[in-house]
Write a structure and sequence with these properties.
Blueprint (H helix, E strand, L loop, with lengths): L6 E6 L6 H13 L2 E7 L10 H11 L6 E6 L3 H8 L3 E5 L3 H17 L4 E5 L10 H9 L10 H10 L4
Parallel strand pairs: 1-2, 1-4, 2-3, 4-5
The protein binds 4'-phosphopantetheine.
């Protein structure tokens, strides 16, 4: 019997959320019943934005979508998916280069939790080169990132880091 209600988790570090992430969340919200944006609490690298800041920003930029919520997780993603009742993991694939890592994660997650499916979606073509890492790097070096992140992210970056 197919399950008719699909809650997906859209996991990531979101340090910070980009327009590419947002594009994926909006696409997901159109085809799934509920999207839980799941923010990894302790990414390996020292995050630029604190967990509280990342949550606040994501809540703000997804405010218009009644079927999008925000949560945090630590430990195994599949355990988080089970905890929030998500039967699907949503991940974005920008280029072929993303595929290898994503396939590895998807198959490992399937091994850990066979009932949880991973679904890949493509962002709009204009965001296929956008990543949180590059956005931060370009901003720190004084480059323009206006169209790549929500306005609130740009404001927060500007107040956090004086640009050269
Ligand atoms: O923003 P990112 O770096 O693309 O997100 C990666 C993330 C958070 C989805 C991934 O690192 C993850 O799921 N971490 C949780 C730990 C885990 O479950 N690891 C095994 C995955 S195969």
């Amino acid at each position: 019997m197919p399950s008719h209600f699909t809650r997906v988790t859209f996991p990531g570090s979101f340090d910070p959320i980009t327009n590419g992430h947002l594009d994926l969340i909006e696409r997901g919200a159109r085809i799934f019943d509920e999207v839980v944006v799941s923010v990894l609490r302790n990414p390996d690298k020292d995050p630029l934005f604190s967990l509280a800041e990342r949550l606040e920003i994501i809540k703000e930029v997804t405010r218009g979508h009644s079927n999008v919520s925000v949560d945090t997780f630590d430990g195994l993603l599949v355990e988080h998916a089970r905890r929030v009742g998500a039967n699907t993991i949503l991940r974005g694939i920008r280029a072929i280069s993303d595929y290898e890592y994503e396939l590895q994660m998807a198959l490992m997650n399937r091994r850990l939790a066979p009932e949880v499916e991973t679904v890949f979606m493509m962002p709009a073509q204009r965001y296929t080169f956008v990543s949180s890492r590059l956005v931060k790097e370009v901003f720190l070096l004084g480059g323009a990132i206006e169209d790549l992140v929500p306005a609130i992210v740009l404001d927060r970056l500007r107040s956090k880091i004086p640009v050269p």
